[in-house]
User: Fold this.
Amino acid sequence: MSSATATLGVPAADTPPSGESLRERFGGIVESIAIPLGALLVAMGLFGLFMFVIGKDPLQVYRLIYKGGFSSAFAWQNTLQRGAPLILTALCVALPAQAGLIIIGGEGALVLGALAAAVTGHALDGSATLVVQIGMALAGMVAGGLWIALAGGLRQYRGVNETISSLLLTYIAIAVFNQLVEGPLRDPASLNKPSTMPIGDANMIGSIPGLDVHWGLVYGIVFCVLSYGLVRFTTPGFAVRVVGGNVRAARLVGLPVGALVLGACFLGGAAAGLAGMVEVAAVHGTANASLIAGYGYAGILVAFIARHNALAIVPVAILLGGINASGGMLQRHLDLPDATVLVLQGIAFMTILASETLYGRWQGRGH
Amino acid sequence: MRPVESAVVAGTAPGVEMLGITKRFGSFTALDDVTLRVAPGSFHALLGENGAGKSTLVKCLVGYHPPEAGQIVVEGREREIRSPHDAHALGIGMVYQHFTLVPSMTVAENLVMARDDVPAVVNWRAERARLAGFLRTVPFQVRLDAPASTLSAGEKQKVEILKLLYLKRRFMILDEPTSVLTPQEADEVLGMLRDMARAGHITVLIITHKFREVMAFADRVSVLRRGRLVGAGAVADLSPDEMAEMMIGTRAEAPAMRETSRREPGEVRLAIRSLRVHDDAGLPAVEVESIEIRGGEIFGIAGVSGNGQRELIEALVGQRARVSGEVRVHGEPFGARRREMARHRVFALPEEPLRNACVPSLSVAENMALRGFDRRPLARGGVVRWRAVFAQARARVTEYQVKTRSPRSPIRTLSGGNVQRAVLARELSEPVSVLIVANPVFGLDFAAVAAIHERILAARDSGAAVLLVSEDLDELLELADRIAVMFDGRIVHETPKAAADLGEIGRCMAGHVG
Assistant:
């Protein structure tokens, strides 16, 4: 039968390329959109229930979240402003995840990146603006990258669980940051709020023309697009995915597993370090405790919702930025505390993690 | 030894007869009309190669696989054993190769927990008193309050045996109980079991590969080969030679050996010197002094599993660190780096291909590209050319008859034989200088086996040096040009196939060297 069909130009029965159904071809994509979306809806439902229990009208809460995050140009600018750092800190989870590591220490990389950028910016003050800005970005990325690479190295060479170590390294990073900012690196002029020496207004990276959103958003989007291309289309990116999928197979074909793991961790940490640099160079002008704002932790949620896909990170980060932006609105209108949106984030994280078990049910499997 | 006194242990050791047992898994007959008679109070050894059916037979007895045909007679009455629970009720218990103690719990807690009827609230004072009383009746001592994790391997094994006594299971099946013990610990544990059996308190059925233990402790032996009972008798009447012959057969009925390589072997392609490798626990697993394999020959390594073969292969292909020693390919040091593999054209077919050679979540096409994805034609300037990857996959799927719905399907959705074919396609499509193979057909059907063997022979005939590790002696006899035996991490025997003495190979596999 196969020879007869083959002469008609139809491939042999054993290996029919056309035998692959739409389900198999696109099932994975449909799932990776539908499942996180469903999980978010469930989270919204549970959050509404929580609001109802504490005596608020859930519908009004939803309306206010929409209003505060997405209803006007002003709301959108606020949303984008808050989403920008999340894009970069999410990459700090998503890139090591390609190599099979669950890194949750983006906050530490952000903090140290910010400190390195602030110190570099002050040291280079007086050089050409572009030189100072590039210097700050590089310093931030290297500092953040080395920090996460440290967690990767502990895992690779000493068998320390990278999830735990990266979390604990965050506490160390914050302590070191505070020690230096309140001690040797403190600007004597910063009285109430210990800060490093300002980088100088001329060296700030400023806003995207026509918007009240700083350039950090663009940095994040560019970093995501480059990361996506790296993972999807380059040989090192493929090698990292092999390591993440099965280390034994990676070793069998001679891949340098240690270098690939460290590289993925370094790039992830560099993204979070760059987020710290943006906080310094676009928002605060100096490194101080204000930039320890939980962006690193929110990035974990973004990366998991985006299933570690670098392109999906951008819309998810903006969505989460919008939810954060609406916190003030909830506070003013419903007299809810600031932490309310954190409750929503926490519920969303749990539903996203729980939904992980649902993958693969819709895709055609086996024979 | 203390005298065995009381009522707990005392009681009669049961006898068991398994008559005409047949067990099939699909089309595969694991046991074919096997009869095993274990007399009360005897110490009975069950011998056989890997896959001979020993484990299946005892699993029929403890109720994991009820047999298709045959009778089981316990203490003179025919019984139906449908589940482990039935077996326990008849006093049949099993000690497994690996320990089943909860490491963080004390010995006392482990013992009480093992009971079927643990009360919701345990009165520990009463239980401890009862345990202490029970301990006085057994011929050895353990510390009841020691956490299991602090015990040595020998002590853990004793607690496992103690557990069976405590649960009143007087027909004890032990599945290679000494594989994790030192020889001294093994002698102590087996000696203790023998004494209890001689005293008529228990009956012991032990699965083992080691002739030394059979000769020293057992009084009767039954030998299985390929699912059939091929011999039984009193140990006193048998020599290791006779047992080895029963175990691996005279091979009069064995499949025709393939012609060995027609060409003279070429130059040395793979050389291993003084290689030392540790196992996962950090203990020495491989101590190989010298292996040299020339182009155009297949060097086979036989041995019972667990004698360092896995660690040797892993060390050669880069999955395990080497402690010392050197590996050379084409005379140059070989560290299993990607560049070295590509330059010297070193390829591998490891056992369990889905675990060792594939990324289960990636597609068939991506898995087929694992060797070449960073070279032309699959990549250019550091960028993977997916079009070329898929074109290559389609060609290989056709050539190697890999049954997959599409090159895009995740490779974990393929059957075992097709996973192995996909790996073959990747490892054997390019010219091969050195091929490292381990148990390549384990668990595959007949057609897949033949196809895979043909490919390995074709690689040899095109001049590759092939290292073939197999637990299946027939596979080695069929394919290899030279055969070595690995025992306890060492190469203890080496022979050209033409001069192979099966008795000698069998003895060496069982550690009876000399």
